[in-house]
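User: Need the bound-state model for 3,4-dihydroxyphenylalanine:
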Amino acid sequence: MSQTAGGDDPVLPFTPAELAEIEAEAVAAVAAAADLAALEEAERLALGKRSRFSLLYQQLGQLAPAGRKEAGQRLHQLRRRLEDLVDERRSELEAAGRLARLRGDRLDLTEVVGGELAGHLHLVTEVREQLEDIFVGMGYEIAEGPEVETDWYNFEALNIGPDHPARGSTDTFFLELDGAQGESYLLRTQTSPVQIHLLERGRLPIYAVAPGRTYRRDTADATHLPGFHQIEGLVVDHGVTMGDLAGTIETFIRALFGGEVSTRLRPAHFPFTEPSAEFEISCQICAGAGCRTCSMTGWIELGGCGMVHPNVFVATGVDPEEWTGFAFGFGIDRLAIMRHGIADLRSFVENDVRFLSQF
Ligand code: DAH
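Assistant: Bound-state model below.
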């Protein structure tokens, strides 16, 4: 116990150095507290009943009034500083605890289970991406078009005249849009309108494929869905021939199915190609011998193709004297069915994990 020098100075039960020491000890203990329990202990040691601080505090009552006031103020200040310090440290520790809990609760959706990814892309997406890879490897660009189209893009510019059956309301979902101003909007029934967008863009030559969703007013059954997927191909260059078309189809089918598949073209009619053909591949189920899937023919029709009709070039401002081209289009869902021997197209949209996880 010491006292300050000077006659009128109040007599205090401690020196400033002693208070500083008590403070420094408490500061160190609070800072070192690694969790809330340790902090409580540090607080008890610094300010609790048996602390050095409390011993000094208890002596206040025995002091002369002048000394009591001054000593009381200093001890109160010290107590407030230490309490603030403890509060601050408590907030820090609580925040760290919350963060640790959040980290612990976090769901790792990329978690690897048993050495394999727990989820995977949908089968249709997988086949679409394989097709994209094959065509990118052949130097094609991947193009995209809107799913909501006007009559012009889905029909008119594709040389599908006003009386063509594909325009009937039985096939097409027509849309009533506010502010349509006489323009008729619809969900595209095919990816062929992307041809029109590509041609209108006017950047020639064109080597492009456009995969995407298509819609028709069909009742879902084993081989139809009202929403399905197609991929469109368009090549426009100088001197493109039907032979280039046949070679391109053969090449990508081989890349997709491997070497054991044959392809053939059969004459057909499409308004936007002339001549037109359907392309077929040897049945993957019976290897061409004939079975129920291929109606005993050994061949399965995959899609349509042909040389771009001059009317399509004219409608989009491309000179048919200078440019020639071919186009093709086919259903991705059907292709996926064939590659994996799936009996019913509806399995693609039922989202039954037992089905999806097989692939
Ligand atoms: N768009 C046609 C359909 O949905 C398929 C098709 C046929 C696309 C011939 C083409 C083509 O590009 O040349 O049935």
